[in-house]
Amino acid sequence: SFSRGGYNSVIFIIEGSTRLSLNSVSIGSNVTSFGEGAFQGESYLTSVTFDEGSQLNSIGLNAFQYASKLTSKSIPASVSSIGEGAFGYTSALTSITFDPSSNLPSI
């Protein structure tokens, strides 16, 4: 869900969806995956946070590609796969932090 203009909204990420010009997103604990290109081209996106107990298990191909203002990212322990180019062309990205109990077998 995200809040914009005082309204709380639920966002469903659909492959090839229209860009929303988001600057921050809070992902609910029941979201299990980001589809291909979920946040691709969201050039204003600076923050993505996950609710406690996140069940996210996969980040799709090019999920954050061209999210050029995203500076850091923490990956929940539940993530077991990250698609190719997921963080491609994120020129401001300086760190990606993995939970110590990460389920990710390889990068």
> Which bin fits the share of residues in helices?
under 10%
Beta-sheet strand percentage?
25-35%
Helix-strand makeup class: mainly beta
Largest beta sheet: strand ordering: 4-6-8
Integer-rounded radius of gyration = 13 Å
User: Helix and strand succession?
Assistant: EEEEEEEEE
Q: What is the number of helices?
A: 0
Summarize the structure.
This protein has strands at 2-4, 7-9, 24-27, 33-34, 47-50, 58-59, 72-75, 81-82, 95-98. It is mostly beta strands and 107 residues long.
Write up what this structure looks like.
The chain has 107 residues and is mainly beta. Helix content is 0%, strand content 26%. It has no helices and nine strands. The chain has strands spanning 2-4, 7-9, 24-27, 33-34, 47-50, 58-59, 72-75, 81-82, 95-98. A three-stranded parallel beta sheet has the order 4-6-8, with no helix packed on it. A hairpin with a 2-residue loop joins strand 1 (2-4) and strand 2 (7-9). The radius of gyration is 13 Å and the shape is globular. Residues 1-17 have low confidence and may be disordered.
Which descriptors apply to this entry?
107 residues, mainly beta, 3-stranded parallel β-sheet
Topology (SSEs and partners):
Elements: E1 2-4, E2 7-9, E3 24-27, E4 33-34, E5 47-50, E6 58-59, E7 72-75, E8 81-82, E9 95-98
Parallel strand pairs: 3-5, 4-6, 6-8, 7-9
Antiparallel strand pairs: 1-2
